């Protein structure tokens, strides 16, 4: 549903972009820990979804978004003081995919990579991307071997952590028009 102020409820799954960590100042601004490389791009969106899958999402019009010191700060229409900002502490921020800015070439939203199969240049399967980790130097793919039922009882499938850098990740093909996607890596199974 949409009114003159914008969307009032979530129509599509929300992609989590970051988390509100604290209030900033006394005028309703919040500090945000971003889960991406270019969070200032999110400032181009008119609304952010605030909440979580468990508690539900509330659509809040964005009044401002800027980089301050070593982090991102934002303000929402209707959140005018510190107590209003503190009430948002711990909530996630996000947006439906169709509301988000288009990523630059060779840049990806983490959500687009989760679930993709990973194989090396020799065609050996490593499993599926189950998550990503942000480290200081670079992002890291969490790749779990597909559980084909042949593992010993009680043994978990092998999980690899692969650096998401150009020297390792050679190709990312996102699924399109029914064609499957894949991530190809320059990595050996015995590493």
TrEMBL record:
Q: Which Pfam families match?
A: PRC_RimM, RimM
The residue ranges crossing the membrane are none
Q: Where in the cell is it found?
A: Cytoplasm
Q: So which domain of life are we looking at?
A: Bacteria
List residues of the RimM N-terminal domain.
17-98
Span of domain Ribosome maturation factor RimM PRC barrel = 110-188
- Example GO molecular function term? ribosome binding
Q: List the keywords (alphabetical).
A: Chaperone, Cytoplasm, Ribosome biogenesis, rRNA processing
One biological process term from GO is: rRNA processing
Q: Name one GO cellular component term.
A: ribosome
Described purpose of this protein according to its UniProt entry: An accessory protein needed during the final step in the assembly of 30S ribosomal subunit, possibly for assembly of the head region. Essential for efficient processing of 16S rRNA. May be needed both before and after RbfA during the maturation of 16S rRNA. It has affinity for free ribosomal 30S subunits but not for 70S ribosomes.
Q: Which family does it belong to?
A: Belongs to the RimM family.
What's said on domains?
The PRC barrel domain binds ribosomal protein uS19.
* The protein's assembly and partners: Binds ribosomal protein uS19.
Per its record, how is this protein called by name? Answer: Ribosome maturation factor RimM
Q: Which organism is it from?
A: Oryzomicrobium terrae
**Gene that encodes the chain:** rimM
């Amino acid at each position: 549903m949409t009114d003159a102020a914008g969307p009032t409820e979530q129509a599509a799954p929300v992609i989590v972009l970051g988390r509100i960590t604290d209030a900033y100042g006394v005028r309703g601004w919040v500090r945000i820990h971003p889960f991406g490389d270019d969070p200032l791009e999110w400032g181009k969106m008119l609304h952010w979804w605030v909440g979580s899958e468990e508690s539900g999402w509330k659509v809040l019009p964005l009044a401002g978004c800027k980089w301050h010191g070593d982090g991102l700060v934002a303000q929402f229409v209707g959140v005018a003081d510190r107590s209003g900002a503190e009430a948002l502490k711990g909530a996630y921020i996000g947006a439906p995919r169709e509301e988000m800015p288009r990523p630059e070439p060779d840049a990806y939203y983490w959500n687009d990579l989760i679930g993709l199969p990973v194989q090396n240049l020799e065609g050996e399967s490593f499993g599926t991307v189950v998550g990503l980790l942000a480290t200081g130097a670079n992002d890291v793919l969490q790749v779990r071997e597909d559980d084909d039922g042949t593992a010993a009882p009680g043994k978990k499938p092998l999980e690899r952590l692969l650096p998401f850098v150009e020297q390792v990740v050679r190709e990312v093909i996102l699924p399109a028009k029914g064609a499957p996607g894949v991530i190809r890596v320059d990595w050996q199974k015995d590493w």
